[in-house]
Hints:
Strand content: 15-25%
Order of helices and strands: EHEEHEHHEHE
Largest sheet: 6 strands, parallel
Oligomer: single chain
Amino acid sequence: MRRVLIFGCGGMLGEAVYRRFSKDCEVMATDIDVNEPWLEYLDVRDFPSILKITENFRPDLVINLAALTDLEFCELHPQEAWVTNALGQENICLAAKALDTTVVYISTAGIFDGKKEFYDDFDIPNPISVYGKSKHYGEVVTPKLVKKHFIFRAG
């Protein structure tokens, strides 16, 4: 049975991802807001905790849904946005790299400046918000740290 570790699994997307994977896999789901009985507490800003849970669970797949997405909050609290959205992904990648685990990173269309109606994978990111910049860093660092990865942009 495949093992899936999901970070930031406390929201609507997290619940949908958890329900989908838990049908066929052994799933460990984490969040800083433990609002469901199937969630365990974990903060993606805490590298030692990420490393410990990853080494103990030994997942085949890691999914990062954790993010500060409130644009206004991110602008007012750029350090918190950066540590959660950017360094949180870096922490996850470093832990996954040690096990050669595949990483799925959920990014955002906010890595673009909004000057076009539609963007594709060949458009050059130009984030203009703290949120967009912090998520873009996650896209940049992921392929540098892990060989096996997928990056999906929501929005």
